Amino acid sequence: MSNFLINSRAQSSINLPPFSTRALEFHRSLPVYNASPLHSVKNIAEFYGYNNIYVKDESNRFTLPAFKVLGASFATFKVLEQKFNIKYSTIDEFKSELAKCGGLELVTATDGNHGRAVAFIARLLGLKARIYVPKHTKESRIRAIESEGAQVIIINGNYDKAVEIASKQDAIIIQDTGYVGYEDIPKYIVEGYSTMFWEIEEQLSTNDLPNPDVIIAPIGVGSFISAVIQFYKSTSPYHPIILGVEPKKAPCALESIRQDLIITLKGRYESVMAGLSCGRISTISFPILREGVDAFLLVSDEQALKAMKVLAKQNIVSGESGAASFAALVLLFSEEGSQIREYYHIDDSTNFLVFSTEGATDPFMYSKVMNTNNLKELI
Ligand SMILES: Cc1ncc(COP(=O)(O)O)c(C=O)c1O
């Protein structure tokens, strides 16, 4: 099977409502807000013969090692404000109003990062959290969620089964994927991610750097790349090429676009890129990806682990899912990527933007990757 799919339905601009800056303003109002760094790794770009590579580094978002809290926080606040009709001017005020609602509990399913983010927000607001995880979730990811004070339930099944079980709970469900009858909250989650792109705009202009021409973003259920598309093909005045990356073991978006319907992967699809090991894309993402992703790239577990090491040499801590976009960039630069490069007129003037969406979310694995030369042993 080819590691690329050029999407013939892709458009350069899309008719989606542009993002306002309300998610950015919301995040700025939270404790310990800082814009995440945007690194310019020009040395690597020049080595391969291109102009520049920007890496948005999400290894520390509100003290958590992944970007997911941007979506979980914005969606949770929006849902609770609306459900209980709460008006507040400080987080403490919001918290005390919520306390009057009695024993509220947030529920979600996760392959790690989103669940930890929901647990973190629950703790910030003094609420309970119950997080469903697939059977093969790494112990360290479970402990990280529990460290936020949440109850973790390991289900006998994969990520999609966990989503199904969570959807049936009688609680406030904060899920980052849409399904029939459940689309409002994932839309808020997508909007929450927009903060990252407003930050990038500011970082590029402050440092007098040119806009990206090609963006590579990871795909799990497709919510994150939907936000990328909504920003760069609708909100921003310039419209870069958008490439999506998935693990070879879990190509649910690529297959859905190829078949032009939402498919569910059969069998086991766990990759070391835990956050991208999903079997079915979100119902809200499908139409957005259908017109918004110019091409799909598949990367192997080994390519992702290698990318972690290359990024580490640039002093960027990037976990398995985090390094997927950079791994796809290296694939694009290889002989195999020549068709895509030619198709999109990628040349020595091109500027790339990739998202390192997590840091060392599995610290044990991270140190093993850093300390071994035989990466195949770890897969
Ligand atoms: C680190 C990381 N990157 C990327 C993604 C993919 O995001 P989405 O599932 O919205 O496509 C995830 C999802 O959990 C993730 O944890």
Structure description:
The chain has 379 residues and is α/β, with parallel strands linked by helices. Helix content is 41%, strand content 14%. The protein has 16 helices and eleven strands. Helix 3 packs across helix 5 (113-124) and helix 8 (184-192) packs across helix 10 (223-235). The longest helix has 15 residues, at 69-83. It is globular and about 60 Å long. 52% of the residues are buried. The mean pLDDT is 96. The structure holds pyridoxal-5'-phosphate.
Keywords summarizing the entry:
four-stranded parallel β-sheet, 41% helix, globular, Rossmann fold, seven-stranded mixed β-sheet, 379 residues, alpha/beta, binds pyridoxal-5'-phosphate
Spatially, the strands of the biggest sheet line up as 1-10-9-8-11-3-2
Biggest β-sheet description: 7 strands, mixed
Question: What would you report as the Rg, rounded to the nearest angstrom?
Answer: 19 Å
Task: Please report the first level of CATH classification, the CATH class of the largest domain.
Answer: Alpha Beta
CATH architecture of the largest domain: 3-Layer(aba) Sandwich
* Chain-averaged pLDDT: 96
Helix content: 40-55%
Low-confidence stretches: none
Structure classification: alpha/beta
Number of helices: 16
Count of DSSP E strands? 11
Gap between N and C termini = 20 Å
By CATH, the topology of the largest domain is Rossmann fold
Tell me the overall shape. Answer: globular
Bound molecules: pyridoxal-5'-phosphate
Tell me the count of domains: 2
What is the helix/strand order? EHEHEHHEHEHEHEHHEHEHHEHHHEH
Fraction in beta strands: 5-15%
